[in-house]
Amino acid sequence: MKFAQRFAQLVLACFAGLAFADGGASQHAQAWQNSPGWWRGTADLPGFALDEGTRQLPLVKVLGNRFVNAQGAVVVFRGVNMSDPDKLAAQGQFSRAYFEAIQSWGANVVRIPVHPSAWQRRGKKDYLALLDQAVRWINELGMYVIVDWHSIGNLKSELFQNSSYATSKGETFDFFRTVAARYKGVHAVAMYEIFNEPTVFGGQLGVASWADWKAINEEAITIIQAHNPEAIALVAGFNWAYDLSPVATAPIERSQVAYVSHPYPMKVAAPFEENWQRDWGFVADKYPVIATEIGYQLASDKGAHIPVIDDGSYGPRITNYLGGKGISWVAWVFDPDWAPQLIKDWRYEPTLQGRHFRAVMQRENRP
After folding, report:
1. Strand ranges of the sheet holding 61-63, from the earlier edge strand across to the other edge
2. What pLDDT, on the 0 to 100 scale, is given for residue 254?
3. Omega before 340 cis (within 30°)?
4. For residue 35, is pLDDT > 60?
5. CA-CA-CA-CA torsion sign (87, 90, 95, 97)
6. Per DSSP, what are the bridge partners of residue 191?
7. Planar angle of CA 200, 330, 217, nearest 5 degrees
8. Closest CA to 80 of 318, 364, 354
9. pLDDT band at 322 (very low <50, low <70, confident <90, very high)
């Protein structure tokens, strides 16, 4: 008798579980989100909030092929890439003065490149402290933020250009669920760039089709927007984030998405504007596009390498092309070490490209 009663209880429990799974999943998810516990794994992470009284920037969203603010006015981003916060901190250069210098150049957006190796080495809690501080300073100075997972390689095969970019699909998704939830409601953190530069490197890093890459990005966006529905996700093309041609027939099937290209000077030959239009510029006729890395230097400059070497004519050519199409851009990089450099030293003296991009930002980003 006792056995029969126990068996009946187990059967009822199973049916109750099935009923719960069918109709009570959302209640369970809400309870899980609101309950502390070791299984969440974030008990040692302090929360993030803007300081009381700190101004919120206008929320930016995607509308058609443009970024717009809450009033519906078109927003064109023109700004700079900062150094990885981990690098700045290690060199004693992580300060409000650094971001004040960027603001003085007229930037309205700062891209924060988070290298997987730095994230792993410093640890989630300590790295988030740096990221939080950068977000606070950038917000206080009236600029927007792109959080960039700065890897180069093939996320499908999990093969990367070098060890500083080594990550995994799981770690990538976990990074974005962490930062998307953390900065929910902070309007300054406008965009989440899922992967810096996808490439199979001529097969040296395996294979990946656009369908593969599309599916990975769509899953990442699902995770990001489940935690932060207002987040804009940025999706890069192949060939080190240059080629967006597959978007013509197979765009990302999610909302609040913009596309990324890194059209450095040596990616194509003349006629430059015609080739840019063919490879990625056409996307801006239908969707927002942001060139999250542009830049150039002379062959004789420190760290000069393919594909950034140019005689100087690239600067006006690329900003005129982008400006003519209303495409946003972010110059690489506000650092005297990483090439192509925007600054010569930690006094923030501009290089050749630094002078050009500064002049354009100060002219075009005026209120």
Report:
1. 61-63, 66-68, 74-75
2. 98
3. yes
4. no
5. negative
6. 146, 232
7. 40
8. 354
9. very high
* Mean pLDDT within 142-160: 98
> Strand runs (DSSP E) across the chain, as ranges?
61-63, 66-68, 74-75, 78-81, 109-114, 144-149, 152-154, 159-160, 189-193, 197-198, 232-236, 257-260, 289-294, 328-331
Tell me the residue type at 6.
R
Pair 147, 189: CB distance under 8 Å: yes
Q: What is the maximum alpha-carbon separation in the chain?
A: 91
In this predicted structure, the answer to whether residue 362 has a pLDDT above a threshold of 70 is: yes
Query: How many helices (H) and strands (E) would you count in the chain?
Result: 12, 14
Tokens representing 262 are 């890194």
Buried b (16+ CB within 10 A) or exposed e, 18-29: eeeeeeeeeeee
Digit-coded pLDDT (tens) for 196-237:
999 999 999 999 999 999 999 999 999 999 999 999 999 999
Q: Would the CA dihedral through 241, 246, 250, 256 be positive or negative?
A: positive
Using the structure block, give the residue that is written with the tokens 């998704």: 173
- Rounded to whole angstroms, how far apart are CA atoms 220 and 197? 16
Burial class (CB in 10 A: 0-12, 13-18, 19+), 80: buried
Q: Which of 24-28, 46-50, 70-74, 105-109 has the lowest mean pLDDT?
A: 24-28
Place of tokens 């924060």: 112
Amino acid at 276: W
pTM of the model: 0.89
How do residues 45-102 score in pLDDT, each as one tens digit?
888 989 877 899 999 999 999 999 999 999 999 999 999 999 999 999 999 999 999 9
> How far separated are the first and last CA of the chain, in Å rounded?
81
CA 10 to chain CA centroid, Å, is 49
Q: Residues for the chain: how many in total?
A: 367
Task: Look up residue 224 and give its two tokens.
Answer: 């990001």
